[in-house]
Amino acid sequence: MRDAITTAIVLDILHSNADKVKMASMAQTINVLNALILTNGEQFVLTPVYDIFKMYKVHRNNDVLDVTITDENSDHVKFFASINDKIIYLNVINFDLTETISVDIDLPGLVLQYQKEELAANDMHETNTFEDPNHLRAVIVEQRNNVSANELFDISIKPMSVSVFKIVLG
User: Fold this and answer.
1) What are the φ/ψ torsions at residue 145 (nearest 5 degrees)?
2) DSSP H helices in the chain
């Protein structure tokens, strides 16, 4: 999970600088530190880093949005957002080891669809293994339709987690 969180932070930095960084790639993907895939003979396992890349693909060809952070106690959280047409994708990374954080998303009007996908662990050393290949997987933990923007307050973000929100504006 530690590698997944650091990968998410780096990808958010690269996305935030898309006007300067036109392309970036992962040099090594299999059986290395921070790998997407681990193999052992005929077996393979997708790592939590793989899930981050899968979660973050929604930002392709989008425009970067400015995210305003109003809480001064946000030392253990990172945000990134992009928009394409009327769909906002918001990443929230909580790299605090123990504290759940609360996020308020301030949007005008009606949200046609709200979805939260999450990759979270109880310990930063948790990972997927050949014996338990799906121990850590990104899952959609919440999905609602026709939500008032006022309802998107006090959203809990678990410690050691990466969340990607899909917000379809009305």
Assistant:
1) -115, 150
2) 2-16, 48-56
Tell me, what's the pLDDT at 72? Answer: 61
Q: How many CB atoms lie within 10 A of CB 118?
A: 19
The closest of 115, 128, 130 to 163, measured between CA atoms, is: 115
d(C-alpha 163, C-alpha 93), whole Å? 6
Q: Which of 100, 110, 115 is nearest to 156 (CA)?
A: 100
Q: Is 167 exposed, middle or buried (0-12, 13-18, 19+ CB in 10 A)?
A: buried
pLDDT tens by residue, 6-25: 999 999 999 999 889 888 88
The whole model's pTM is what? 0.93
Tell me: the pLDDT tens digits for 130-165?
A: 999 999 999 999 999 998 877 777 789 999 999 999
Cα angle, residue 112 at apex, residues 107 and 115 outer, rounded to 5°: 80
Distances (CA, A) of 39 to 35, 48, 114, 126: 10, 14, 36, 18
